[in-house]
Amino acid sequence: MSLPGGAELARRLADESSFPSRDKRDRSDLIKVASFYQWAGDRDRLLHQLHEVFVQEPPWGKIHDFLAAFPQDLFIVTTNYDDLVERAFQAHQKPFHLVVHCTEPSHRNSVQWWEPHAEQPRYCTPSELPLRPGKDGTIIYKMHGTVSRVRPEFDSFVITEDDYIDFLARMIAGSGVPARFGVHFRHARFLYLGYGLADWNLRVMIRNLKPEARAALAARVSRGHAADGMHALREVGIGPDADAAAELSDESPHKSWAIQSRPSELESSLWEARHVKIFPMTVNEFVDGLTRELAEQAKKNRGPER
Fold first, then answer.
1. pLDDT tens-digit profile of 2-41?
2. Which of 1, 47, 142, 174 is most buried, judged by most C-beta within 10 A?
3. Looking at per-residue confidence, does 255 or 185 come out higher?
4. pLDDT band (50, 70, 90) for residue 219
5. pTM higher than 0.90, yes or no?
6. Backbone φ/ψ region at 194: left (φ over 0), alpha (ψ -120 to 50), beta
7. Averaged over 270-276, what is the pLDDT?
8. Cα–Cα distance measured from residue 147 to residue 4, given in angstroms and rounded to the nearest whole number
9. How far lies 108's CA from each of 127, 158, 207, in Å?
10. Measuring CA to CA, which residue among 154, 171, 43, 39 is closest to residue 106?
11. Torsion sign (Cα): 168, 169, 173, 176
12. C-alpha angle with apex 305: 304 to 306, nearest 5 degrees?
């Protein structure tokens, strides 16, 4: 059992809503199909269908275990709706704060804040949220909402055209991203995992989060998640690229990194324009390589065995 990707979910919703276009590209466009689904039916029906899809419990992947076992606190940002990373952290008994962008009409200008082990969320405006990345423990920030296993009314999904317009308008107005997170974004170095810059909404989101040339955003892992704070990356090479270690140095023009399998020439150019060094490999290959490198570093630090 696995969760559907965006194109697969779009095709499912297209079949259920009698989507009028036969064009494969249209039927694989999740924003377009979800917008039609909501227009043809109603918002509650769309939310119910999304809840049924994402409330499933497929096993999480290597990257989720890697993040949950990481010894330092992390600031993890994802635009996915599933809870794979949260479930991995719970399985490892690692506490975390969960912050969720709200699309509920009664809390449209707020974020949900789930403190560690909380049974109910608190609602804060983005300017009021007191959490500080790097200082208040691990934070998981779900920019486009989430499925909730506690109660469906806590679900939140940025998925239709109207949702994205509202989300981007709030970002531009400074009321979308929590203020302390925004300050962190302006100075942090990030690792993108599994994202493709072919998605226009990602490019717009990055530009509005951090207008300067070296903008970057922690990202999802294929259908999963990502993280900031892996300072060990600055000391180790990644994958087969012989220049990896040099690219991670402070003198390098590349101040962020992206892991993406088979990027197109356009995507590679878009990453490069944002001063992001791209490594063409799968996320699992990245985790395996980084795990080996960290083990080697630990062995060297221990010194020769007697």
1. 899 999 999 999 999 989 999 999 999 999 999 999 998 8
2. 142
3. 185
4. very low
5. no
6. left
7. 85
8. 14
9. 14, 11, 23
10. 154
11. negative
12. 115
Q: What is the pLDDT of residue 226?
A: 35
HEC per residue, the chain:
CCCCCHHHHHHHHHHHCCCCCCCHHHHCCHHHHHHHHHHHCCHHHHHHHHHHHHCCCCCCCHHHHHHHHCCCCCEEEECCCCCHHHHHHHHCCCCCEEEEECCCHHHCCCEEEECCCCCCCEEECCCCCCCCCCCCCCEEEECCEECCCCCHHHCEECCCHHHHHHHHHHHHCCCCCCHHHHHHHHHCCCEEECCCCCCHHHHHHHHHHCCCCCCCCCCCCCCCCCCECCHHHHCCCCCCCCCHHHHCCCCCCCCEEEECCCCCHHHHHHHHHCCEEEECCCHHHHHHHHHHHHHHHHHHHHCCCC
- Tokens 């072919």, located at residue: 198
What is the residue type of 106? S
Other beta carbons within 10 angstroms of residue 86's beta carbon come to 22
Domain ranges of the chain: 6-54, 62-294
Contact 82, 75 (CB under 8 A): no
What length does the chain have?
A: 306
Q: What is the 3-state secondary structure (H, E, C) of 112-176?
A: EEECCCCCCCEEECCCCCCCCCCCCCCEEEECCEECCCCCHHHCEECCCHHHHHHHHHHHHCCCC
In the block, residue with structure tokens 């969720």: 100
